[in-house]
Predict the 3D structure of the following.
Amino acid sequence: MALRMAMVGGGPGSFIGPVHRMAAELDGRIRLVAGVFSRDPAKSAQAAVAWGVAPDRVYPDHHTMFAAERARADGVQLVSVVTPNHLHFDVSAAALKAGLHVISDKPATLNLAEAQALAKVVAASGKQYGLTYTYTGYPMVREAREIVARGDLGAVRKVVVEYSQGWLSTPLERDSANKQASWRADPKQSGVGGCIGDIGVHAFNIAEFITGRRVERLCADVATVVPGRDLDDDCNVLLRFEGGARGVLIASQISAGARNGLTISVYGEKGGLTWSHEDPNILTLDWLDGPSHVLHAGSGYLGPAARAVTRLPTGHPEGFIEAFATIYRDFADAIEGRAGGLVPDIAEGLRGMTFVERAVAASRDDAGWVSLQGEG
Amino acid sequence: MALRMAMVGGGPGSFIGPVHRMAAELDGRIRLVAGVFSRDPAKSAQAAVAWGVAPDRVYPDHHTMFAAERARADGVQLVSVVTPNHLHFDVSAAALKAGLHVISDKPATLNLAEAQALAKVVAASGKQYGLTYTYTGYPMVREAREIVARGDLGAVRKVVVEYSQGWLSTPLERDSANKQASWRADPKQSGVGGCIGDIGVHAFNIAEFITGRRVERLCADVATVVPGRDLDDDCNVLLRFEGGARGVLIASQISAGARNGLTISVYGEKGGLTWSHEDPNILTLDWLDGPSHVLHAGSGYLGPAARAVTRLPTGHPEGFIEAFATIYRDFADAIEGRAGGLVPDIAEGLRGMTFVERAVAASRDDAGWVSLQGEG
Amino acid sequence: MALRMAMVGGGPGSFIGPVHRMAAELDGRIRLVAGVFSRDPAKSAQAAVAWGVAPDRVYPDHHTMFAAERARADGVQLVSVVTPNHLHFDVSAAALKAGLHVISDKPATLNLAEAQALAKVVAASGKQYGLTYTYTGYPMVREAREIVARGDLGAVRKVVVEYSQGWLSTPLERDSANKQASWRADPKQSGVGGCIGDIGVHAFNIAEFITGRRVERLCADVATVVPGRDLDDDCNVLLRFEGGARGVLIASQISAGARNGLTISVYGEKGGLTWSHEDPNILTLDWLDGPSHVLHAGSGYLGPAARAVTRLPTGHPEGFIEAFATIYRDFADAIEGRAGGLVPDIAEGLRGMTFVERAVAASRDDAGWVSLQGEG
Amino acid sequence: MALRMAMVGGGPGSFIGPVHRMAAELDGRIRLVAGVFSRDPAKSAQAAVAWGVAPDRVYPDHHTMFAAERARADGVQLVSVVTPNHLHFDVSAAALKAGLHVISDKPATLNLAEAQALAKVVAASGKQYGLTYTYTGYPMVREAREIVARGDLGAVRKVVVEYSQGWLSTPLERDSANKQASWRADPKQSGVGGCIGDIGVHAFNIAEFITGRRVERLCADVATVVPGRDLDDDCNVLLRFEGGARGVLIASQISAGARNGLTISVYGEKGGLTWSHEDPNILTLDWLDGPSHVLHAGSGYLGPAARAVTRLPTGHPEGFIEAFATIYRDFADAIEGRAGGLVPDIAEGLRGMTFVERAVAASRDDAGWVSLQGEG
């Protein structure tokens, strides 16, 4: 039997709402059956029709929904939180307190203080809490993590991670019809980080995910390039990892012409690996001595982590929706008590919020190298 | 309300069954609610559980299913045919006669005679019939077709299409546990074409789809390379299109190391285009004079055909399941009377069967150039 | 001491003349010291100045040159033949008879009869005769040949070789100022082959070079696409190699937008290799089971054949001139009696002429499969 | 008449000496006729034989050579300086004072003070002084510079330049037979910069070359990763350009598996460009709205700067030697008073030395952002 899910947010005009819906249902493990898809009841109803949600399970607000669903024998078991950042804490905490598992879009909350508060709620709830750091759902990212963990590259020495977009090269947020741009550029909805909170955290997360090492210190140049913008749109950060590896993190939304270019290279003593989101089904390994290896998703020679999350034979591309669906499938496993999944949790949420707040503050104060330890 | 679908075939051990299920449901337009997923009732039940199909709608055979579903107020409206080729005709014809729409895996039937018979059933039924020539569901393949139709390349002069796999480089079919290999290598289940019927028809179909021109004549070298194999596993074909363009079609399942490499180049008087399945979200245009253009799926500058079938912003890869889902979405549109979709139909099924039979016969008889006209 | 070379042809307006000059001198093994660079004495003198050839060693015709140089103690030792095809035989034969080594641009002669006659002159002369099939000078092409010879791929089963250009998509040859186009399109200067003689022979040669197997039979579609053109500009050929491998050879000069796209894939029982001229410093190996390998020129792990002809460390691209220079260096080795070089010789010249004549004739007569044996 | 050149350094065991020789002579504008190729007379003589230099023009030291050549009517006109860094100043200054033009491998000198002294010698000499920042010789790098200068991208906002090698991942310098590694790792021969002086300056130079903007400030993490090494082998630097653009410069010789990966992206208001040394004959332009453009070297649609330095038609790869040769050809033009060349000169030498010294010092002192102005 599929798990029953509600969604908060994600209705018409949202990019990520439909992705969550498709991802949650792709593997037949979860069914969307209830929701508050928009503050606007008409839009909420419109989403319900499109997604096959019964009209009587479309609610005016999440408090009402949680109460009503709790009263049903077939009430929802998990909630997907797909609102702008400033609502993440309130919705997630309420859901957990209502006894529901929560899977949330990133970042976890509006700021670090909220993330710390949410961590306590999660701990007290006994429920599962997951964050959709989508890129960790790609098979070849999991293969990369496994390769590093196995020591194939030797000790990690250097990490270069870049996440470049160009879509905020102009002040799109002034066009109120562009919801994607307007809420992201508004500190009240986004928090202190613009680009760094939107995509910088993905780069940070994938670097820690693949290397299995935490960033200990950073030196940041977090900038606002487009005149009049309230939040940062370009970030360049020097990193030091535990164990001594150095790194560079580049995140930008004003790299005009860039699409969604997340690329990471990890170099160890014996070789390096490179994964790029624009060609996600391959992983390249370069060696000090010997031919480069190109690993293809879906191949029998891959490790168990990658093979567990591939749906198709090699040569049949899987993409963003499938990676997203893997996070949901892992979350379903976690709810049902099966081992082996890799759902990013509140600890990674705290790491992300710590990264954003420290980098923004350090850059603003020209503070040079600052520590990332202690709170995340 | 989502359309209600039954599936015949596709249960445990099938590669393509789960793909049909995910593809049909991805956009929320269709729900799988009934099925005969396997001849083995236990396996059939197992698929039903995994896919959320109620136990009372899992049937012992398709005739029983069609009768029972017809009697229900909420009976199925369409049937997905996912069996080996030799059952396609019987299941499809029975479904159409039972008043159900049919969407079938390719090729349409076991042989040309069956395809001709099926065409008559389709015509008499008044129901929709669709074939999942998956590759025509990719946004950049539709963009390619639009570019050619718009005349951007000038008159088409040359087509090179190659579909190379390597997985049948050894006699896998002798391992009875390998269902994928064993039925494909068995003439009784596959028909007269091995590689040419399995993937050659995809190459043929995409060439006609993108160019909008029919192949008029061909000269074929259809071969069996792995000793002891009953059907062909390597095909090289010279083509002549209506309007005079020349072409080459290469299909192989013994190109060791090749994964699922479908690549097509179309050259006109002014420029050429290239699309490759291993990097499906781009389309490259090369011009007689001027920089090459690389078009990226999800971009605002693409034509209406591509934009209509893209789910994500540019830089977010879509893959095989999404392309497959587009065929299903177009089929849902066709059932509901909406215009604009591009579902391959029985006419394309006839073309494919004609291609397979003529190429196999001409190669066997060393017949040189033969006509493809008259029957498809 | 560098070998002393004369050149016939190659003056102002020639593409390939300057390439021969740079290639011959690159490694310091050969110096250009005399020549008949053009029929036009002013142009010939102009080339001499640009290339540092003394004015008194610029001659009105090749007969005069051979006689005069023979009389000098420091006379030339080898002659580079860079004229249009119809002069190859006369110049080459005269040089050989004058006791000079000859290195000639391809094809060897205007037609097969001339090639057969030249073979006799070569044999009688006791001098070295070489043909600049440039692509065999690339390190990764030599690595490919070595990999096949070593049996890494198992027995060869299939070859796909494509050489596509687009520059003759329009009737450039009608512009008399375009020397490159005009002589190539003139049967009196080019012979019976247009595209097939200009670039098809390169594709044919590299296929035989890498596989170490001769083509035994072919079935050809040799066409003239641009109206009014006298020679072919588009060729598609099915191949059968000795030992049973099948192949496809595609050569075109009307693939609009294509630059100089020579690509070859060779598939054996265990894996396949691919080399492409637009990215010549890598060689890709794909395996039935295991990651793909990408070999990079200049790497220490390459075989002796590739390492012998690489001038730079890995990551420093070498290109067309360097590959050309390798042919010249190998030729210098041959003259000086050093072993190990791989200069294409008159036997390969005969193969090329046989290929061109048989393919053109077979296609014209719609002869189906024809033999390539007996004469080349 | 070709210009007559002497070389200091570059004999057996040198990587870059043979490259200078091939590059200087490639276009027939310069001939190597004299030299001090090694301190070891036998090795020096060996190089002379290989390169066709007369025995009587091989000298024991550069002072002797400059005096002797000055006394000849056909004495050398320019000197190529190919020694380790610590000898650059002495040889270059002596040559200039002897009335010879100087073309030197980079960096200009051992340290900034020497570079400043050399700048005065250059100014007083009235002779040409050039530096072989090779990468600026690539046609597509010149096209990139022209595109930025023309304003096609709008104002430059961001630059990411990375130059990653892996060959010093192990302490190769302890193997005394490895001359390439040993002198580079020795501060007395290399100066204060290891990786940053060897390849970081190339990255710095190409960034300023393409953008036409100077770096004003930087914040550097210059590190020694391999234990026991005396100089840096990994450098990560945040940049600020005049006009406000931000940037990141990454240079490493411990990125295991990396070959010679110099890649630069420049983003402006309207689009971005990317050039990569491992595929040097293309330049990619990505736009805020519209297809990406891929420009191919040798194409007629390129700007005058790129077309002036391409030797072959499009599709015929040129590489490292050709780019190097372009610097030499430009230098020959400068000597002969022809306009249009782009030889890096002593001003760029000063910039490079300033970059190295400031970055190393700032990183050592944890100085945060430091200025690059005032001295370079």
Remarks:
- The CA atoms of residues 355 and 372 of chain C lie 7 Å apart.
